[in-house]
Amino acid sequence: MTRRALPFLMVAAAITAASGCTCSGDVSRFPVVTTPPGTDGGGNGNPDGGPDGGGGNGTNPCEVIVCVPVVDGGFSGTIGFPPDGGFNLDGGVGTSGDGVSVDPLGRITLNSQDIEINYAWIANWKMGTVSKFDTKNLLPDGGIHEVGRYISVFPLDGRGRRNNSSSASVYDPSRTAIDVNGDMWVANFASHAGQYFSVTKVAGSPFNCVDRNGNGKIDTSVDDPADVANYGIITPNEYLNPSDPNNPLLYDECVLFTQELGDNNPTGRFGEGSISIAAAPEGGPGDVWVGTWIDRRMWRLDPFTGVPKAIPAGTNVGQLPDGGGMYIGVPSIEPYGSAVDSKNRLWVVHRVQNTVAVIDANTATLLVNAISPPSGFPRGGYGIAVDKQGRVWVPNWGSGPTATRYTPPTSGPIDAGTWDVFNYGGLTSPSGTRIGQGRGVTVDDEGIVWFSGDRNNLGSAALVWGASVDDGGVRIFDGGTPTPLVDATSTWSKTSIGIGLDQNKNLWVNNSTGNVMRIDRNTGGVTTSSNQAGALYTYSDFTGYQLRHITQSQGVFRQTVAGCSRYAQWDTVTWDAITPPSTAVVLYVRGSNNTDFTVSQKYGPFTSSPADLQAAPGPVPQFKFIQLEFQMSSLDGVAQPYLLGFSVTSKCLTPLQ
What residue numbers bound the domain in which 101 lies? Predict the structure, then answer.
């Protein structure tokens, strides 16, 4: 049956004839009651309203009743922003900002803080799960809070097609990456014979989850505060592990899809390697780049569906048969880690060596297959990070307490740069231990490169130290006893893997022993989480800090707008913005019948003004309220976008089925 919309004054319906009809519920649920054929008022479809019915269309009056809404404020027509007095970011009048500020001319622009990031996503490769840790709010006792846990595979891909992956097996999740919407992508090693290498997307917010079973809520992992004894860590009954692995309706509804890549793993060798999120030159989420080291390929995935995207013809471009997707071959390296610089170049490091390949993520072309340090340099590698100046850092795992840095040239061939090596073997902790080798690496926007180390001079360890990105000079922690090296090794904290940064630039490290650590960037004070069974193993941009502070600068401005009623139709949004090259302003829209948008679907990005909200990527349904989210980004961190103003057009409609 087609749903039509009529202006309020055109409504005509005999409400008294509709026994049991109600007009409660939100815009997506309308009173529909079907009377069986042959009963009074039901009809059998006879167009002349013959013996079997009065209307002849098989419906009773409930189906044609229009619940006339009360016009309860808001507007119909066009309303402009900002109101008198200019933009306000203090939460008043339905506004808020994250990573943005109002400049002296009254324009919204990016500020130095970038968008807030509040979670670390760490994979447990032996258990086949990914844990979500709150990096902003510690527990009342000062401990680290695990707020969610998710199976790392889902039996459908992003197009809703059945795949070969399910919770019946552990798929060895490892690297994670966080996109600009806060959604998490995890690469699955798939190290068991017969499995497929894959990538899974998990929604970072209930906004982006899907009510697949139609029960009116989002079924997802939650830490129950009533379970006082276990509060702070997710127990087995607090995350969804399907009793039937083949039934998608039994999975966590924030686990969105799994995209398989390449061929079946016949031998059981580890297959998945790097994962990074690129910037999107037009704004919105960028492409997801994934490396499979067993076959030396780099895959470019659609940020919404996970489907491998087309790659222009060029060097080492290949395509699998039967629609398996296109890839870029990197025959000189086995992709194991990756990072994206501010020019949107993807740097990919070789497995256990510091040779790197480079891909232009804007054009999806291979720039160089291999750049290696000169003879005599340490050759170990593992993690990788890029600083604000585009210099590439690799800790020399397997080669001692050193790190190498590659500085690309400002012009000319990208492989004509220079290499430097920094030796941290002389650093000692307060307990007298020294660095055995580094493993993870990250860089902040204050010019400090941070390392995690998994061995000291005594054996397996949990180490953290920092240095200047300019000269490699060591940064000192000072919690009363100044030290260049934090050694947090204990029975419960050993074999540190990756290191990441939260919004306050404090350090987060995951350990193979099953816990995570938060290290205060100033004092070196260490806070640890509870241990979980299995082994944590993630050394990528697992908080999203690198994407938001190194690859691109980003912020959002949100405005809530009230329509005339819950049947307001939202037509267009027009905005006035200044977007120099390398910047973008794009729009996302959510709707709700109250001002809580927690479980509202997100529509967008609308990339140009005016945006027709009733066309793709809409249509936006009828709601009392909409929340406009303008995402602003700068690829180089220098050029700035500005939002000067915007207007919204709406009209009052009434749904009729």
Answer: 76-113+556-652
C-alpha 435/C-alpha 424 separation (Å) is 7
Domain count, the chain: 2
Determine the Cα–Cα distance for residues 180 and 605; give it in Å rounded to an integer. 12
**Is residue 63, in this structure, part of any structural domain at all?**
no
163 lies in the same domain as 301:
yes
What residues pair up with 516 in beta bridges, in sequence order? 510
pTM of the complete model: 0.81
CA 182 – CA 203 distance, rounded (Å): 7
Q: How many helices (H) and strands (E) does the chain have?
A: 1, 42
Beta carbons within 10 angstroms of residue 4's beta carbon = 11
User: Per the domain annotation, does 577 fall within a domain?
Assistant: yes
Q: What is the pLDDT of residue 227?
A: 94
pLDDT of 53 reads 33
508-557 pLDDT, tens per residue?
Answer: 999 999 999 999 999 999 999 999 999 999 999 999 999 988 888 888 89
Instruction: Read off the pLDDT of residues 378-404 as tens digits, 9 standing for 90 and up.
Output: 999 999 999 999 999 999 999 999 999
CA angle 551, 354, 172 (to 5 degrees): 75
Residues sharing a CB contact under 8 Å with residue 2, sequence separation 6 or more, in sequence order: 657
Q: Are residues 247 and 303 in the same domain?
A: yes
Q: Are residues 159 and 302 in the same domain?
A: yes
| Measured distance CA(210)–CA(253) in Å, rounded | 5
Q: How many CB atoms lie within 10 A of CB 605?
A: 23
6, pLDDT greater than 60: no
